[in-house]
Amino acid sequence: EGTGGEVTISIGIANADNRSSFAELYAAADAALYEAKHQGRNRWVLEEACRPGQISGTSVDMGIGSDPTTD
Length: 71
Hints:
By secondary structure, the protein is α+β, with helices and mostly antiparallel strands. Helix content is 25%, strand content 15%.
């Protein structure tokens, strides 16, 4: 039987505008994904937060998995 483990999600978002190839878009989304994972569980990060010199204020804690009875 299953253990009922917790599920979490991290999302990296990249903009396809001004991309010359799919590989470039994929790399931007991948960098944003790893930044989301670095910041913690249940977060999404826009690619702008991963660029050198940018303020990393474009991430959001999605609150997934929190117990509403304790909030």
